[in-house]
Structures are given as C-alpha cells and as structure tokens.
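BUG: 3D viewer hangs when loading the predicted structure for this chain

Environment: internal workstation, default settings.
Expected: structure renders.
Actual: progress bar stalls at 90%.

Input used:
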Amino acid sequence: MSAHTGAGVLVEPARPDDVDAILALRASLEDWMAEAGVVQWPRGSLPRERVEVQLAAGEWHVVRGAPGEVVGTLRLLWADPEFWGDDDTPAVYVHGLMSAISRRGSGLGRALLDWAADRGREAGVAVFRLDCRDTNPALRAYYEGYGFTAVGHRDFPTFRAVLLEKPLDPAP
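Structure tokens produced before the viewer hung:
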C-alpha cells in the first residue's frame, strides 16, 4: 500500500527490481558507519538472499528519489521473534530503517517512522517497536528523541541489541 506521510513523503512497497537499490543504499551506509566509527551494521552483513525473501514477503517499503534511486527504506513487521522472542503483544516493528546520506537532516527518517506508526494505528495496535545495537548511542538517542523508551536487551553471538518501544495513540 503506497501512502504519503504527513511530511508528503511517498512510501510504497518495494518491488523485486528494488533489491539492488536497497543493497546499494545499505552498502553506502555501512561504508559511512565504518569510516565514522559507528558500530551498527558491519559491511556486507545483509545478504542479498535475505532481502529477496523479505521483499517477497512484503516487508520492505521504499521512498524513491530519481528514477531507479531508493533514498529511504524500512521493513515493516507485525511480529519479531528474532529480537523480541515469543512476546505476543500486538505491535508494529521496524527494521532496516535507512535514509540516504544525501537526505541527512531532511526529516526523511522521522517521516518513515511516522508512516510506520500510522500503519500500526490503522491496524489497531498500541505498541511500536524497534531496536539498535548497544554500540550505537547516537541512534538510540535519535529513537528516544522520537519517543521510544528502552525496555530491554537481546544478546546475539556478535552483538547486543537494545529493544525500544513507544506507545501508539489510537487512530483518529
């Protein structure tokens, strides 16, 4: 479902031919993070096959710039057992939130979060959840500035994730 955010950004379901653009955006952000000393996504940590499966499941959504260019993405989920375990609280989850470096400071990340929150409200869920690595305090602060609160951690073999959630007011 395509929908404009309150900021007028058009978010639409990713198409199969968007895989390369999603991976290119991710690679550019992985490179930027590595050069800036930010530990969030190691280079090459998102396999093409995973994106293809997730895209086929309807999880990826994109914001387009020029033709063929993806300037923003996110994965929208309704359950996240990998990070949240068997918690069956009705919630909307976001992974893979990306905004092109050229869009830094434009509000695109916030517009994508607003869009996801609206999808959650429309679905009648009262909780919005996401995570970040505990080695990325700037991203955690960004999410907390949006209204998320850290509610726990999840340990993985190579990293620890901070679990964050935000209550959603009902849809008007």
